[in-house]
Amino acid sequence: MLDNLRKFATTLPGKILGAFLLIGLAGFGVSGVLTSVGANTVAQVGGRDISSLDFQRAYQTELNATAQQIGQVPTPELALQLGIPTNVLNRLATEKVLTSLGNEYGLGVTDERISEQLRSDPSFGGTLGGFDRDTFELVLQRNGYTESEFFQSRRDAARREQLAMALFSELPAPDTMELLFRRYGDDQRIINYMILSTDNLLPVAEPTEEELAEYLAANQTDYRTEETRNVDVMVLTPEILAEGYEIPEAEIIAEYDRTSQNYIRIERRTISQLPLPADATVRWFELGQQNGKSFETLLEETGLTPTSLGSLAQAAINDSALAEAAFSLEEGEYTIIPGVMGQRAIYVSEIEPGGQMSFEQARDQVEDRLRTARGREDYIDVLDSIEEQRAAFIELDEIAAGSGLTVQTIDVTAGGAALEGVGGMTAAEASEVAQRIFAGTDGQLTPSVPLSANKTVWFDLNSTEEARDQTLDEVRDEVFADIMAERQDVALSEKATEIVTALASGEPFEMVAVNNNLFPEISAPFDRGGDGSDTITQAVATAAFGGGVGHIGSARTASGQFVVFEVTTIRTSEEPLSASESQFVTNNYRNNLFSDFAGGLRSDAELRINQTVLRQVLGLDAN
Fold first, then answer.
1. Rg of the chain taking only CA atoms, in angstroms
2. Angle of CA points 47, 51, 53, to nearest 5°
3. Which pLDDT value is given to residue 341?
4. Which of 140, 195, 198, 428 would suit a FRET pair with 164, their CA atoms being 20 to 30 Å apart?
């Protein structure tokens, strides 16, 4: 439920709720522009200077954090677009006004207390774990602090923390807030609904020849061909070489005798699971087991269908109770154990014994290992031989024939999808080879493409077909299908709106469904994530949670259907929040109050910015 609470805390209602006891206070704003301060002052707030050094230090920290998220250090212009300078000034101004208020109240800590904190701070620990003076000085140097500046920053931080704790640490969250958080996470809806699909629509008008031509002209970029390059491709791997080897039977037998201890078969069991939610069903299976009835007989008597879990090794089963039960049974036996929603029957229909594999069982594995080992031994020699032949301008077909390889002729587009799977190439490898192909030139000898220590690709570029606009004759069927799909989509949306309008006018749900040849259904209770089906999806649930009982609406599912609904029931939970959930709500409430309090102080203090110094610090043109 904490996940739901966190989600709610980020929504507009959550944010409003977090501040509903306070008057909204203005955020960061610039009340004026400084023109008469020193070159070392970026801004002033409440008469306190924000130095260029303090700003630069905080700004660089923000840049580093942003770089980790976007993969590059933002330029000054990009940083400005992202609002990084504003955020830094916002934070520094807040710290200044809070520190100033803390000073007015006489808050603070002694140097001795700060020294104790430093000695226990692992950031300043040496190799032996205790406080290390050299490490301390190195950390300060890297962050641009003198020792006196660092101690002052710790004193100021302590004042701000004491201020926050004194004002807000004992404030309980209002009962209404806890109620709303609980209801956000636990409320359920039940709806009447009908499913509207294109099958329920009258046929839409087919496009004329003129409409086909107009649509193609308006959407020509969607019907361009991709540039295609025809290439001959050859792949070398130990596994490909191994396919051409024949291993003498005597060698296979000798290798098995030498390594037979490595060929162990893990015991596997074919397992089925059957939930038994009703006590009467549990009793029926228990009595059947006592009377020697088979699992199949009990299924016939009850009409239940079990779920096959497949053939599994014990280590592959995450449910320890299930694993223990299944591997204690004999073939054809079943047992009853507890489950999440009640009791469940566990049935083992087949057992594949484990243990030492015989030669007949392991023969193919032994042969494959011998062939692959030989392929690895020969890989470098074959690679060198191919490179020598390529340097002598010998054709790929001739090289392949002499090396036990094959050449495939393939039409490749920029993404390289056609190369995936060729010679065992992955999607990433196919993309890399495609980049090399599209960087090549007709008639030039191309170098090999090493994909790993044991995989190399060669290609020859045969021809290039440039991207072009296709004519209507070439894409007529595709354009026709796209127009029809768009028209059906519009008709479906209009029909959904028509049905919602009829319901909103007061017509009974069942009557509206029947009049539109639809089947009215009643949902099971669901939360904001839906019920896990393809019908009551999260989109449908979100729409249903947009109102109370009687709320009418529609939502589109991933399959393109519309679910038209009417909320009939709201189920609320009476369970109180757990201790951790309640603490989460309280902490968010206190944080929101403190944030608004700090914002109010910052607004009243009037932040003024020295634009000239700020632009210089940011590395922007002063003009």
1. 36
2. 165
3. 67
4. 140
pLDDT given for residue 455 in this prediction: 94
Residue 517: Cβ-neighbour burial (10 angstroms; 0-12, 13-18, 19+): exposed
Q: Quick check: 218 and 446 in contact, CB under 8 A?
A: no
3-state secondary structure string, 466-529?
Answer: CCCECCHHHHHHHHHHHHHHHHHHHHHHHHHHHHHHHHHCCCCHHHHHHHCCCCCEECCCEECC
- Give the Cα separation of 157 and 154 in Å (integer): 5
Compute the distance between CA of residue 302 and CA of residue 304 in angstroms, rounded to an integer.
5
First to last CA, the chain: 53
Rounded Cα–Cα distance for residues 438 and 459 (Å): 11
Question: What gap in Å lies between CA 31 and CA 609, rounded to an integer?
Answer: 9
Q: What are phi and psi of 334, to 5 degrees?
A: -145, 160
**pLDDT score of 51:** 85
Neighbouring CB atoms inside 10 A of 167's CB total 14
The sign one gets for the Cα dihedral 472, 477, 480, 482 is negative
Q: Dihedral of CA 280/286/291/297: which sign?
A: positive
Give, in degrees to the nearest 5, the angle at Cα 396 between 461 and 388. Answer: 110
pLDDT recorded at residue 37: 52
DSSP 355-372: EEPPHHHHHHHHHHHHHH
pTM (two decimals): 0.53
527 backbone dihedrals φ, ψ, rounded to 5°: -100, -165
- Amino acid (one-letter) located at 386: I
Burial pattern 533-545, b for ≥16 Cβ within 10 A else e, equals eebbbbebbebbb
DSSP-assigned letters across all residues of 261-318:
GG-EEPPEEEEEEEEE-SHHHHHHHHHHHHTT--HHHHHHHHT--PEEEEEEEGGG--
pLDDT at 109: 72
Distance CA 280, CA 257 (A): 57
Within the chain, how many helices (H) and strands (E) appear?
23, 18
Distance, C-alpha 513 to centroid of its chain: 38
> 404: helix, coil or strand?
coil
Residue 28 tokens, joined:
């960061």
Collapsing DSSP to helix, strand or coil, 240 comes out as helix
Which parts of the chain register pLDDT below 70? Answer: 1-39, 126-129, 340-341, 621-623
